[in-house]
Write a structure and sequence with these properties.
Elements (H helix, E strand, L loop, with lengths): L2 H32 L3 H7 L2 H19 L5 E3 L5 H14 L4 E7 L5 E7 L4 H18 L3 H11 L3 E3 L3 H12 L7 H11 L3 E3 H5 L14 H7 L21 H4 L6 H22 L20 E3 L8 E3 L12 E5 L6 H7 L6 E7 L2 E6 L6 H8 L1
Parallel strand pairs: 4-5
Antiparallel strand pairs: 1-3, 2-3, 6-7, 8-10, 9-10
Helix pairs in contact: 1-5, 3-4, 10-12
Length: 375
């Protein structure tokens, strides 16, 4: 369940509560106006009808004295008698019972009496409360994400660009915002501390420690050794959960990847704290050295932008050497290289079968204008 879905569900429940209160208030007014006292009953109704109601009253009184029974079905009766039951007996036992119209096992209309110290309104509102509690059970992973959000616990991932987008869309937004700035605002409001171990491993002072690459497996392996082990933290799994530390796991298994990412992050932050000679007892994620990585994550698909900053403005590189190219769907990459062969080395970023971006990697002043003239 997502936050918008939860909000809609809660709104429906609130509206349902208002309807119950209004209906019960109207019903109470109707009951009060239709209430039939003994004097009027004797004066207006036959003796056999009064005797029948007295018999039902006696049954209800005996029922209330029995501890082993919680409900009582009065004998099947027509709508005329049921109406009189509600007019005479229900007010008399108000606060002790609930009168419910229904049918017995033979499909005959009956009035069922339930023991209760609650009013009809309280019983129905309690049913709505039970619906809300059942809804909370369906929150699933949203409950975990909300705890992370409210506690401001760092949200840590490795190469989690797509994961972040899908998490925000699936749990917190009906649709992702149309602009990057809106996305940044919503995301930082939800998760004030985000760290990407891929971005951390690609930038100094950590980059030089990962010469073998920055895949999650390589990073996890490296942080077990020096220099990261110099300030290693004691990490353990809470009881009741799989102990990946003791038994390991498979790469790309969600739980094991999360474990590796968490371990890598803790060791990397410990190393940053060590090299920066931070002696404060403040949280590592609040230290000055961590701010260069905080709320930044690596992105793919752009050759000149490698990360996005969520809580600050990003530098937008010049694109005067980049061109949008449209061409027949039959073209292949060598056709584009042939078209731009006089321009030297280029980079092609495909959009679809008939268009692409082309970046000229080496250019001089006004070179882009010269290229347009040549083409």
């Amino acid at each position: 369940m997502s936050v918008p879905e939860e909000a809609k569900f809660k709104k429906r429940l609130d509206e349902k509560r208002e309807r119950i209160r209004a209906q019960c208030a109207r019903k109470q007014n109707n009951d009060d106006s239709a209430k039939l006292d003994r004097e009027r009953l004797v004066a207006e109704y036959p003796a056999e009808t009064i005797a029948l109601l007295d018999e039902y009253k006696k049954r209800i009184e005996e029922f209330l004295m029995q501890d082993d029974k919680n409900s009582l079905n009065l004998p099947p009766c027509n709508s005329y008698i049921r109406r009189l039951i509600y007019m005479t007996l229900k007010p008399e036992f108000a606060g002790k019972t609930q009168f419910i119209s229904g049918r017995n096992e033979n499909n005959e209309p009956v009035v069922t009496i339930l023991k209760t110290i609650k009013t009809e309104e309280e019983v129905k509102l309690a049913e709505v409360d039970a619906e809300e509690e059942a809804m909370k059970e369906k929150l699933g992973f949203l409950h975990i994400l909300r705890v992370i959000s409210v506690s401001k616990t760092p949200l840590v991932f490795h190469a989690g660009e797509l994961d972040l987008y899908l998490t925000m869309k699936h749990f917190f937004c009906d649709e992702l915002p149309e602009t990057l700035e809106e996305f940044k605002s919503i995301t930082t409001a939800t998760f004030p501390q985000i760290f990407d171990t891929l971005l951390m491993s690609r930038n100094e002072p950590l980059k030089s420690n990962f010469p073998e690459g920055n895949s999650l497996g390589e990073i996890f392996k490296k942080v077990q050794d020096q220099p990261f082990a110099l300030n290693a933290a004691n990490i353990h799994i809470a009881d009741g959960y799989r102990d990946y530390k003791a038994f390991g796991g498979q790469v790309h298994e969600a739980g094991y990847d999360a474990w590796m990412t968490g371990v890598a992050f803790i060791h990397m932050m410990g190393y940053l704290n060590l090299v920066s000679k931070t002696k404060t007892e403040a949280k590592l994620t609040q230290s000055a050295v961590s701010k260069i990585f905080k709320n930044r994550y690596s992105i793919s698909g752009m050759y000149d932008i490698h990360h996005i900053s969520l809580d600050r403005s990003d530098n937008v590189p010049k694109r005067n050497h980049c061109f949008h190219l449209s061409f027949p769907a039959t073209w292949r990459q060598h056709d584009i290289y042939e078209l731009f062969r006089v321009c030297g080395r280029i980079r092609v970023m495909w959009i679809d079968d008939g268009s692409a971006f082309v970046a000229i990697e080496f250019f001089i002043n006004n070179f882009a204008g010269w290229v347009l003239w040549v083409l």
